[in-house]
Design brief:
This protein has 5 helices and no strands. With 91 residues, it is mainly alpha-helical.
């Protein structure tokens, strides 16, 4: 499940990086960093379950906080989409 969720985020990030027309701002850089961190956490989970689970919980928490702060409206929906899947997988 973590591989699917992280893969989805990587796909979205790559498509936005190449096909997106919006300029890179601080919010874009933070989100790109979180996507890479989530992918690395999933890879760590395949290698060491305990370490990967901890990293996924950490990345999921940061995703939740970032989504809550960055979302203009529907903050809880943004949190549910961005961070909760990583929290569930990490748990």
């Amino acid at each position: 499940m973590g591989t699917l969720v992280a893969g989805f985020w990587v796909l979205i990030g790559v498509l936005e990086a190449f096909a997106g027309s919006d300029p890179w701002i601080a919010e874009s850089i933070v989100l790109a960093t979180l996507i890479v961190a989530a992918a690395l956490a999933v890879a760590a989970a395949w290698w060491r379950e305990g370490l990967g689970g901890f990293l996924l919980l950490l990345v999921g928490t940061v995703h939740c906080v970032f989504a809550f702060v960055a979302a203009g409206h529907n903050k809880l929906f943004a949190v549910a989409i961005a961070g909760v899947p990583f929290l569930l997988v990490g748990t």
